[in-house]
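Lab manual, section 2.4: Encoding a predicted structure.

Procedure: take the sequence of the chain (425 residues), apply the prediction step described in section 2.3, and record the output as structure tokens. A sample record is shown.
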Amino acid sequence: MVKLKFIIKDSSLVLRISEGKERYYKSVKHLLTGSPNLARHWNADKERFSANAVSYSENNKILEEFKNPYTKLLLEHPELTARQVASYFQPIKQVKCEIIERPVGNAVPASDFNFVEKYLEEVILREKAKLGCNFETYSKLLSKCRKIIRGFSSLTFQSLDYKACVQLAHTFAKYDGYKGTSKSFRNLLGKASKDKDVPFSLAQIGDFKFAEYNPKRNCADNKTPDILTQEQLRRFINADLSKLTPQYKNRKEVELYRDFCIFMFHSFFAPCDVIKLKYSELTRNNTIRTRRKKTHQLVEVPVSPVMGNIISKYRGTTTDGYVFPIMDDEKEKTYQTKDYTFKKFREKLNIWLKSVGKELGMDYDLYAYVFRHTAITVALDSGLPISYIAMAAGTSIEMIQEHYYNGDSVTNQQRLQMAFMKAAT
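Recorded output:
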């Protein structure tokens, strides 16, 4: 009888497919988000990550989705051997290549760069070394391609032409998230064309455009950022801390969560910008001058009285010059996962905000980034120049015009109606 079980083998998480003394292994390391600490947070009996692991919920779901096809296969075909099960989902056409030991530094040998999968793995490693955590986009792309593209491990850059891209587009279109997936894949092709170690040129695909195969290309995109209404924002800021989310016993933690969110609203900052803000970035002109962690764009925003009070509240309670008592550089060095402290805090913050959202009667799960979205929307509704808002928020005018400045605001609609009525009198 064939058995399936997730185990740790050679410091990596794998799915063991066994029958008697026969063993086969399928690595899932490449699918996991955030590089969780297996030694600390893997529950071998339950085959799940504990709640203390970074991105535990997402990773547990990934493991479940990875194992399900094999479980279903065994139910439908109990006659299969362990070897047949292990090779069942392999592409029909296999490319034989010599297994080359990876050099120090986990770099992929240049000889492997003809394979899209291998090059994508290398891109993820390179992005992880940069600031901004952009590797997650490519990690999701790698995971999705392995799931939906038959023979992905054998796909080479040399085989990519106009026709091949059309086939890929049709495959992407069968699943949700076509726009994001196709954009990430196109960005990967752009990187490959500029890399001297990759045998690929954009000339191979001619004038092919993924956008032309988007199944929703003719649909109006009504998606706008989630924001707090004026009443919801007022209730959040003025809420009685002693009554807010009473199920949380650590009231200092609740106070920190709310101060953190209020600071985001007053500064336009994203969570990663707030958590890593240092006193050295406060200027004599009563402003904050820093670079956004995601875009590296230099921004300067005024320190409002509310922000000043929050800064003063935590002064003397932090380490390493941080404004908020969250980061600790020495502890951060002990974690295997990059930005572990930030990711863990963000995860706990969003769990708390979900409870807050229910108390506010919101029709979606409240999360940290909503406060940045709300700040930009409030600034636009107040008539501030869009160029200034883009500068303060560390983004582009085009991004704000596309996602925010679209006339959905009730205030803007009322102003427009008044302008038309005035013009007609």
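Check your result against the sample. Residues 91-105 have pLDDT under 50 and may be disordered.
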